[in-house]
Amino acid sequence: MVRLRVFISRLLGFFRKRRLEEHLDAELRAHLQSLTEENLRRGMTPEEARYAARREFGGLEQTKESYREQRGLPLVETLLQDGRYGMRVLGKTPGFTAVAILTLAIGIGANTAIFSVVHSVLLQPFPYPHADRLALVWSIYGHEGRAPASGPELTSLRERSRLFEELGGIWAQSGALTGEGEPEQVGLGLVTANFLPLLSSKPQLGRFFLPGEQGSGAARVLILSDGLWRRRFGADPHLIGRSVRLNAESFTVVGVMPRGFRIIFPEGSSVPPDMDVYLPFPTNLASDPRDQAYIRVLGRLRKGVTIEQAQAEAEEIAAQLRSEFTDFSEPGLGLRVVPLQGDVVRKLRPALLALFAGVGFVLLIACVNVANLLLSRASHRQREITLRTAMGAPRGRLIRQLLTESVLLSCMGGAAAVLVGWYALEGLLTLRPQEMERLGTIGLDPAAFGFTSAVSVIAGILFGLAPALGLTRVNLVESLKQGGRSIATSQQHSRNLLVVSEVALGFVLLLGAGLMIQTFVGLLRVDPGFAPHHVLTFHLSVASVKYRTPESAIHFFRELRKNLAALPGVESVGVISHLPFDDSLPNWYGSYWPEGAPKQEQNTIMADHRSVLPGYFESVGATFLAGRNFDEFDVAENRGIVIIDDSVAEKAWPKTNAVGKKLNIENGNFVRDTVEVVGVVKHLQSHTLTDQVRGQVYLLYPRAVRQHMALTIKSTAAPETLLPFIRREVTQLDKDLPVYNVQPMEAYVEKARRETRFTAMLAGVLATIALVLAGTGIYGVAWYSVLQRTKEIGVRIALGARPRDIFGMVMRQGMLPVVSGLFLGLILSWSLTPLLAGLLFRVHPTDPMTWLASGAFLGGLGCLACYLPARRAVRVDPLVTIHYE
Amino acid sequence: MAPPRGEVLQGTLDLIVLKALDALGPLHGYGIAQRIQQISEDLLKLNQGTLYPALLRLEQRGWISSKWGVSDNNRKAKYYSLTRSGRKQLASEAQSWERMAAVMARLLAGAEGA
User: Is the C or the N end of chain B the one with fewer CB within 10 Å?
Assistant: First the structure.
């Protein structure tokens, strides 16, 4: 209580300084006058009386000073005083101040930008209610660790789990919206009734699905995204209850999702973030076939339940299912519970953390450079500090004042850094990989500002402390005698130490960047198994009632293929159910086995299921390793044949020719069939450029009719020029069919490289900044030491030292800290680079060439930085230097 | 180099000021100084200026309050008076001081006897 009262009174005192000062003056004057009058009464002369009064009262100024200290906030007042003084000092050396602020702005700004990304990607919870309790449940079959669940599997999970509050599922599809306006292809999310409430507290309009609406197929209801509602329905507030036409059937709108709602699922989960329409699952999930796994399962854990507990429970349930159901899929079934956010960012996290560490290093190097600048300036201030010490300024007070100056400097740097960070972030966002795009907006938020301010203050203390300590460790007598030169040697030591740390940090960054860039180059060299150049792709969906019979869909695509192939400039036209690197549709895959394989071997070969028409392999430039391609006769006669890739061939029939062998496959309707292998193609990279995730099995379209298909058009000309003609051909066959998702095939490959490109480019930029800073740092130190020793060098030359000796001496002394720094960097990297291993491809963290090149480059830079000062030293004129003193 | 007169002990000045205000009612700074000199019969040496930071400290703690008035010789002066909590503080400090004094007295007497 008393303490608070004192504080408030001091605070008031701080702000009402002037008036209180007048009061104090009046009060003290009155006191002195009274004393003087008393003395006069005692018979002193006026002169004596005043003098005695002063004596009795004691030091007037001391009284006032201690009164003021008691009255206001002395800490704040000295801080302001130091700040004002600091500003004056900085203003007197504008060149130094500008260089320091610029260096800091780059160092801190890079941190601001990366922190913004780290904060919004890794730290900020997803925009869902109880986001920290959301978890995905993946199924495991053999090597397949992230498989979807079947309807009965989800049903069993929901019935048996005690630790999940809710468990729902989604399956992404696409459909055509018709009716008023142009036909439009939209993303469809088939969901369980409880799925949307897991991710959103309430819809913007209307309601979520009712439990009864799921499964029966009777309730023709849907929920729209905010985007579609605005785009197509003009944000009509009375849309609820009205009907819209989807895939040529009528549905009633029951709700509109909130603005900005996105489904953030991991990459490769085949659940795209921006879906336009949600429908309840039309089938009764519990009675689905057990071998149709297509549902991506999301659940909310009960309060206080950990992922480990949920995982243990899931394993128990998986064990029960394995023993209860002996049919096809369950024997190998496992379940895996992972936190939603952790799963989404699992690939980004290591890259972002590595980059975060990288910018941290850059900031350290920037701090070292500024500390260096401060040290150089320090010798000019040595006189001032010595004088102030001589006049009784306590060391702590001087250190505080010097630190105030450096923090002031770094705060100005920090302010400029916000600008740098903003631009850097803009740049980052144009480069950002796909997974980051899923997460939505990233910007400079209050957290980023807070971080920047904190970093600025810490940086200021960091780079200010060494010079401040050095500067105030004054031996008064020596210093006054020598006019400030005695400190030169001790400062040279600190400077050399700074160079050592700069070079060490620079080496780590350079090495990291080198490894990342080699990874990226490695990715560029990867042969994806196809030639994306001059291939245009687009999607078509024949989901409407017009194509209810398989024959009509087959007929449509065959006709279209024929018409498109006849266009001038078109070399070949392919039709396929799923393009490589396309994540907009669910990836269809399953298990395959050679005819006659025993039951326990029937789920060991997992492969992507692809439905094609002849022409696909030519259009994408796939390589046939054995056998033949499909042709039109195969389609016409609907032959039971299949083309597989080398990875399936190798697993099914190791070391023997697969052509002519029989393979058990799944056709388009989840029905098993046995077909003959007629050809083997080289694997087409389809999910990542670096791994063969699964093999591929290509079926003839008539055997596996699908509604959503992609077309690949290989042309001699730039493929974009063909687009109007393509649209015309499609419209001629069906005027209601939208051509969508038009992209050159190269764009898909480009997307697959984006994550590595992002990391490699950033690492490159960071290393470049580090090199520039380290180079100027080394140069500055060597140059300064030559400057300090001009007289000594002059004397040496006068005494007969040859230019070679002088040159060698400066180089040796300049390079010593560089070489020590390289060694330190070597040790540091040895312990740090293993952390990069997960990000690298086709290059080992200890790749000797990269290490050697980084060391040589940095060493060369050091030589160059020392060479110029050494040249200067050689040219020293002994006469001039001796006159100089 | 022993001081001819006793310096005011750290912390006792507060008690002295509170006691003076308690005994005489509202006083200005000069009055308090006079009172201290008078009571101590000039045995205590007080730099009168040091009184003012002490007065401010007591006021900040809410033990005394001040207001401007006119002194006997028609001069504007700041008058300090004891507050209710100041009176309480005085009582408790006086008590602990007396206890301390008693202990010291016993201690010194014992030392003499040995």
Answer: N
